[in-house]
Amino acid sequence: MSVSHPENGAALGPAELAELHWLRSENELLRTERDALVRLATGFAKDVGLLRGRGEDR
Hints:
By secondary structure, the chain is mostly helical. It is 59% helix and 0% strand. 0% of the residues are buried.
């Protein structure tokens, strides 16, 4: 697999490809963790009455 470098169009070397793969994996993990924390915080806020669910009257 050859990926072009955005600045000069040269193909990335094995070390750069490995780093790119690692960074993409890390980004996927961070997005998953962020989404879980948002759901957790939202649930906590609803439990303590700081946030109302959709469709509830104020």
